[in-house]
């Protein structure tokens, strides 16, 4: 048994949906890494499972994928056949732990959930199961990365991280405004020494609103968001992502344009300019009302799963917040595109579906450099432009 200092309630409550899952993780074409301990166990106990593993390089093995479907070759009738025939203990760390993720801050071990799994997404965004508590678990991954900066104790790092989570939990601000406040506070933290972060984070968060500049919206931002999503999908070639392609097709239809996947580029129609306004106007007060609590929890999930500000998708703390901002703006665009020309309001299920589809793709991109280059080209790494993109 291993001790966990902070385990999310969602992780404790989580039960895999199995063959009822609408978007099974074994079928999405991920490179599921296989750790050395698992390979050694297969060699000792279950040599017949070695043919499910392929070597990528000297230090890197993954589960084999079907060339036709991209799914794990051990997926049978929507279920993992290794899990069924040999039990969960026969799974490699990556398969055993998904959608849970273990990280360290010094001596603290923290277990959080990933919203790319539909059931974990529901537990976090609907059940609000963010509370953490200490616990013991049967197994931990062979290697658990430590994100605690050398300048902070484990307690100080946790306190710093918790200040951001508490800010989101106790605020009535919208997700969009929370991101801008967190970006402004993060810029403040960057001006002081790391050993002061635990004391300074609450102060900078309280003062953040006054540091947010006037908005700089750009009319073509909806098009740029769509293009950035298309470009990233194109660069991650090989991922079968039917739900994501449907979401992109819905946005392009709402914006009345066609996608040239080869270039990639957007081919505007004579109606595109009017359609941009229609999509923006479709995001009405009612949609905002339904989405606001879910967006706040969505942001909380991003902060918690990345142990913000200590890890995440981005090389710096600021870049990680920019990524949250662009991802939330993309989710809003996807949801607004559902509302164009229809008389019925947005539903919670629709928000969850699009949030999960986008997380499944964006949370599993390998390297932030390409995303950040695109975001920088569109100006979204500047806070005034990010505010314009978020539409507040
Ligand atoms: S995505 Fe989540 S619910 Fe679906 S099969 Fe994977 S772990 Fe289970």
> Cα-atom Rg, whole angstroms?
21 Å
What's the number of helices?
Answer: 16
Q: Class by helix and strand content?
A: alpha+beta
Strand order in the largest sheet: 7-8-1-9
Distance between the termini: 48 Å
- Main sheet record: 4 strands, mixed
Strand content: 5-15%
- Structural shape: globular
Low-confidence stretches: none
Mean pLDDT: 94
Fold and architecture overview:
The protein is of the alpha+beta class and 392 residues long. The protein folds into two domains: 2-137, no CATH class; 221-390, no CATH class. Helix content is 49%, strand content 12%. The chain contains 16 helices and eleven strands. The chain has helices at residues 9-13, 36-44, 81-86, 93-97, 118-125, 154-169, 175-189, 197-207, 221-235, 242-254, 272-282, 285-305, 317-339, 348-362, 368-377, 383-390, and strands at residues 2-8, 33-34, 53-57, 60-63, 75-76, 79-80, 100-105, 108-113, 132-137, 257-260, 265-268. The protein has a four-stranded mixed sheet with strand order 7-8-1-9. Helix 6 runs antiparallel to helix 12 (285-305), helix 7 (175-189) packs parallel to helix 12 and helix 7 (175-189) runs antiparallel to helix 13 (317-339). The longest helix is centred in the last third of the chain and has 23 residues, at 317-339. It is globular and about 65 Å long. The mean pLDDT is 94. Bound molecules: iron/sulfur cluster. Iron/sulfur cluster (SF4) is lined by residues 16-17, 21, 24-25, 98-99, 117-119. Residues 16-17, 21, 24-25, 98-99, 117-119 line the site of iron/sulfur cluster.
